[in-house]
Amino acid sequence: MSLNRRIAPSILAANFAKLGDQVREVVDAGARVIHVDIMDGHFVPPLTMGPLVLSALVDQGFEGVEYDVHLMVERPEQHIADFAKAGAHNITFHAEATPHVNYTVQKIRELGCTAGVAVCPATPLDVFREITPDLALCMTVNPGWGGQSFIESSPDKIARLRSILGDSVELEVDGGIDVSTAGLAADAGATLFVAGSALFGAPDPAQAYHDIAAAAGV
Ligand code: DX5
Ligand code: ZN
């Protein structure tokens, strides 16, 4: 089974004073996955948001929209229940952030969500030989900040990850995805493309959504 490619706008780059309107704009353009970046000031230096922001978005009732939570927090197993309760569909955590990857995947599934495992650019892919999550997230920048440049060696790593996963596991890429890099990631085997600043930082986010989707072959 091969998966349909999708774009996941990252609200990290949105204007938080009008978050609901910004999300509506990309949903109206066709987005069906919204990426929510959670940072704890420890695993990565910045602090961002918690489950309250997610539940406020879920309460907007956007039809057919899934919320993809990316936990950049230490000991993610201590926080997954809060995000599942807030309405997450998928919860991804970093393999580097807990010694209990298998346990955390199991707990996320028990909470009724799909489970994703993320790796930073320098982290080997060995974890994916030991466990098959529902989603594998290959960071294409160092986690912690929007607006960075796509790491050039990423397509090689994405292709190696795709060959470990087989065809039926979602392979997400996150960081520096825009009209010039989305195609490189797609050709290497990515199926879910996070876009933050290239989308919400554009003068017309709906047009940017269409352009990135076309570049990714969505
Ligand atoms: C970075 C976050 C990303 C971020 C991507 O640590 O995980 O999701 O929003 O931002 P851009 O698309 O600007 O690189
Ligand atoms: Zn992210």
How many domains comprise the coordinates? 1
The CATH class name reads Alpha Beta
- If you compute it from the alpha carbons, what radius of gyration comes out, rounded to the nearest whole angstrom? 16 Å
CATH superfamily caption? Aldolase class I
Q: Termini, distance in Å? A: 16 Å
Please give the share of residues in helix.
Answer: 25-40%
Which class do the helix and strand fractions yield? alpha/beta
Per CATH, which architecture?
Alpha-Beta Barrel
Summarize the structure.
The chain is an alpha/beta fold and about 220 residues long.
Tag the structure with descriptive keywords.
binds zinc ion; 218 residues; alpha/beta; binds D-xylitol-5-phosphate; eight-stranded parallel beta sheet; TIM Barrel
Could you walk me through the main structural features you see in this protein, from its secondary elements to its overall organization?
With 218 residues, the chain is of the alpha/beta class. The protein has one domain: TIM Barrel (Alpha-Beta Barrel), CATH 3.20.20.70. It is 34% helix and 20% strand. The protein has helices at 19-29, 51-58, 80-86, 101-110, 127-130, 154-165, 182-188, 197-200, 205-216, and strands spanning 6-9, 33-39, 66-72, 90-94, 114-119, 135-139, 170-174, 192-195. An eight-stranded parallel sheet has the order 1-8-7-6-5-4-3-2. Helix 6 links the parallel strand 6 and strand 7. The longest helix is centred in the last third of the chain and has 12 residues, at 154-165. The chain is globular, with a radius of gyration of 16 Å. Bound molecules: D-xylitol-5-phosphate (DX5) and zinc ion.
